[in-house]
């Protein structure tokens, strides 16, 4: 993998981790969904996302309790696994 591509993948992966942290996602619930397939699909969508600029801006400006990132193609999955979400404990495995 060439260096610019590696840096792009690294930045995209970091954004997914930041989004998980800011939304207080229960990572175990996320990873266990559909035996890991939901997380794998989310990671792939994030790596190929065309909304990187919006994502970065949202992450930099998002205060705790702010509005969800409507531009994000995986936001509904992340929100379903939030620690504060009642659905997180009832999420299908």
Automatic annotation (TrEMBL):
Record domain DUF6455: where: 6-80
Domain of life: Bacteria
InterPro entries recorded: DUF6455
Name under which the protein is recorded: DUF6455 domain-containing protein
Species per Swiss-Prot/TrEMBL record: Candidatus Filomicrobium marinum
